[in-house]
Design brief:
Length: 486
């Protein structure tokens, strides 16, 4: 790693990761606030190898994302803090969600239990707690002072339409029911006062905007940038319940919220930055090209316009970014899928042991591990998995196959299947509007359909099927390599 990065790993130059000031809820009993800074402090104390500070000045147009891409190619995925971003005072924090280990550290659990914790949080939500003020109100900018130019918004890919805000969680108020909804969307900077609001057609916020448009009303909203990783995780739930309640469930305590300055929306009091405004229901602008999680450019599409009315932030804010063509987009995205799909599959197929949505599949592939007890169960499970979510491919394997290792799954496919018997397809299904291979349902129609693939990579129950060859399992699994290697 270059010398201009500092951290505590042996391959880095001498130095320590940054120590960030922590807020306290009480003057007498110091309590760590669950926010972005507390998470960075957790990394510094418990996994310093996962936190790296970049001291060299970087250009927000392509250079910062190029550093990420270079490290990604080398298999190095620490949380990165870029202290000096050209022409901006705010540091940039990125790679918060780049591996399940990052998510596990944020929740105080193991990578294997992250999905389970996510499910528990959705079942045991904790409502936000209203407070009078908070650090996000240290600086309040309204009118002409509320310009997007103060933010180090990045341009990630060479042919992106411009700088994109990628990590903001938008909290929107349904003008009909008054209910709150939150989600992460992408935002192209159009001007100092306007952004695109690119929402998938089937998401809850799109439905809110459609109903508001029918009544000639706009939607009050606020874009939250920079908070504890639990905020991003909560945004991935697939139910209609309020996401900040799930964030409270993940943290085990209520999320403190304060009222926004110019719109009727509560915002997290301990956030780094909040952009207040309205989702216009009478204005659309082209959004794209944009390097998306499929690792291709998504073509330009019309998106609603978000009109900025105020910006509030901490006195020393950290700007959070998600690299859209990096693994963190997919790690975060897969969290909601795994939580929903596992519970649904387990109800249909009790023999399901675990599932994994690997980064290698761009969010379109699921591995399912089962305890096979009758022939045909692998095909039935693959059909159920494909129906549970918009996966393009489902691979079902036995318990002895490591579903967190692509090579192990590929070995099972190559040694336990025959293409004419173990593979099946289901054409004419909706997967994603950004599938570059999509085809239309009728001549001249939009290319929205895909063909799904199921693979039963389980071994036959035939007792004469060869056994897996290895030394005695109890012996090799119990060996500590440090006892044998220098």
């Amino acid at each position: 790693m270059p010398a201009w990065m500092s951290g505590s790993r042996g391959c880095l130059s001498l130095g320590r990761p940054p120590t960030f000031p922590l807020m306290c809820r009480s003057n007498t009993v110091p309590v760590m606030t669950a926010d972005l800074r507390s998470f960075l402090d957790t990394l510094e104390r418990n996994a310093p190898e996962l936190l790296v500070r970049v001291d060299r000045e970087v250009d927000p147009r392509w250079e910062l994302s190029s550093v990420q891409r270079r490290l990604q190619a080398d298999g190095d995925l620490p949380v990165l803090v870029f202290d000096r971003v050209a022409d901006h005072a705010m540091p940039v924090v990125t790679n918060l969600f780049s591996t399940k280990q990052h998510l596990a550290l944020a929740l105080g659990t193991t990578p294997e239990r992250v999905v389970e914790r996510f499910g528990e949080a959705q079942a045991n939500r904790i409502a936000p707690r209203e407070v009078a003020s908070g650090p996000v109100k240290d600086v309040v900018l309204t009118g002409d002072r509320a310009g997007l130019g103060i933010l180090p918004v990045l341009t990630h890919c060479e042919k992106d339409a411009g700088p994109y805000l990628t990590a903001g969680m938008t909290i929107a108020r349904d003008p009909d029911s008054g209910a709150l909804n939150a989600g992460i969307y992408r935002h192209l900077v159009l001007s100092s006062k306007t952004l695109t609001m690119n929402m998938a057609p089937l998401c809850h916020a799109s439905e809110i905007a459609r109903r508001a448009e029918e009544k000639g009303r706009h939607v009050d909203a606020a874009i939250v940038i920079g908070h504890h990783p639990a905020l991003g995780m909560a945004s991935q739930q697939r139910s209609a319940e309020y996401e900040l309640e799930t964030m409270g469930g993940l943290l085990g305590e209520p999320v403190d919220v304060v009222q926004a300055e110019t719109v009727d929306v509560p915002v997290p009091a301990d956030a780094e930055i909040v952009i207040e405004g309205r989702i216009r229901t009478d204005a659309w602008e082209d959004d794209g090209p944009f390097g998306d999680y499929w690792l291709y450019y998504a073509p330009p599409k019309p998106a609603r316009v978000f009109e900025v009315t105020a910006i509030t932030h901490r006195s020393d804010p950290l700007y959070h970014d998600i690299f859209p063509v990096g693994p963190e987009h997919l790690v975060l995205f897969s969290l909601g899928m795994e939580g929903v799909v596992f519970s649904q599959l387990k109800a249909l197929v009790p023999q399901v042991v675990a599932i994994n949505v690997p980064v290698s599949g761009a969010g379109n592939l699921v591995y399912v591990q089962i305890r096979k007890d009758f022939e045909g169960l692998g095909v039935n499970t693959a059909l159920a998995a494909l129906g549970a979510y918009r996966f393009k491919c489902a691979v079902v394997v036995d318990e002895d196959v490591d579903i967190y290792d692509d090579a192990s799954v590929l070995w099972a496919i190559m040694t336990r299947t025959q293409a004419d018997r173990s593979f099946f397809t289901a054409p004419g299904s909706y997967i994603s509007r950004v599938d570059p291979t999509g085809y239309p349902a009728y001549p001249g129609g939009p290319p929205l359909l895909s063909t799904r693939l199921g693979i039963d990579a389980t071994r036959p129950l035939d007792p004469d099927f060869p056994e897996v060859a290895e030394p005695p399992s109890a012996l090799w699994r119990g060996i500590d390599p440090k006892d044998y290697l220098p």
